[in-house]
Amino acid sequence: MNKVYPDAKSALEGILRDGMMIMSGGFGLCGIAEALSDAIRDSGVKNLTVVSNNAGVDGIGLSRLLETRQIRKMISSYVGENKLFAQQYLAGELELEFAPQGTLAERIRAGGAGIPAFYTKTGVGTLIAEGKEEKIFDGEKYIMERGLFGDVAIVHAWKGDTAGNLVYRKTARNFNPMMATAAKITVAEVEHLVPAGEIDPDHIHTPGVFVKRIIEVGNANKRIEQRTTRKRDAAAAAT
Question: pLDDT at position 232, please?
Answer without folding.
Answer: 75
